[in-house]
Amino acid sequence: MVKSEKVIERVEPASPMAWATAAAAWLVPGLGHLMLRRWGRAALMGGAVWVCFFLGMAMGGHMFSLSTGQGSSALLQVPPMIANMGSGLLYIVCWVLDIGFADDLVQAARATYEYGNTFLLIAGLLNYLNMLDAFDIAAGRKP
Amino acid sequence: MRHFLVMTVFAVLASIVFGSIAKETPQERWLYGLKVFAEFMVIGLVLGWVLYFIP
Lengths: 143, 55
Prior knowledge:
The complex is a heterodimer. Chain A is mainly α. Helices cover 62% and strands 0% of the residues of chain A. Chain A has one domain (16-138). By secondary structure, chain B is mostly helical. Helix content of chain B is 85%, strand content 0%. The longest helix of chain B is centred in the C-terminal third of the chain and has 27 residues, at 26-52. The radius of gyration of chain B is 13 Å and the shape is elongated. The two termini of chain B are 22 Å apart. The A-B interface holds A 41, 44-45, 48-49, 51-52, 55, 59, 111-112, 115, 118-119, 122, 126, 129-130, 132-133, 143 and B 2, 6, 9-10, 13-14, 16-18, 20-21, 24.
């Protein structure tokens, strides 16, 4: 091969099923791997997200949305909101029922408040990793 | 004690996902998961002691 010659790697476009699997994996943690019949991965990876989320709620964590900030500070809510939104349906249900979004001073005074915040953020971020893993498997890019 | 327990639970949950998505064989995944868990714990303890001496 000539030194300047570039190797062009062709990547097959992902099938609609792969995208549907990714969407399911985001919406319900673990569902994407269940659809792929990866029972162990679904239990471990999905279970980790569910446990992380509910521990975060139990510790009094706070979830973020654009309505929790005032003026330009609303923009500061965007990064943690994106992390929270990774939990998919869990985030949506809490948002609809207004659970964990209120600025409650009593809740914020709890010793585990910041731990709860972190667990909720990490639950969402871990689920993004789950979603990407499910997508890669469904698209045939990962065994 | 409670803080340490929370840190341990966090490290376990994160290392489960990290270990599951990385590497090829189950054995490599186990080793990587354990390595990530140990890193979380050690770095957490070191940072805890460093911050303890900072007023």
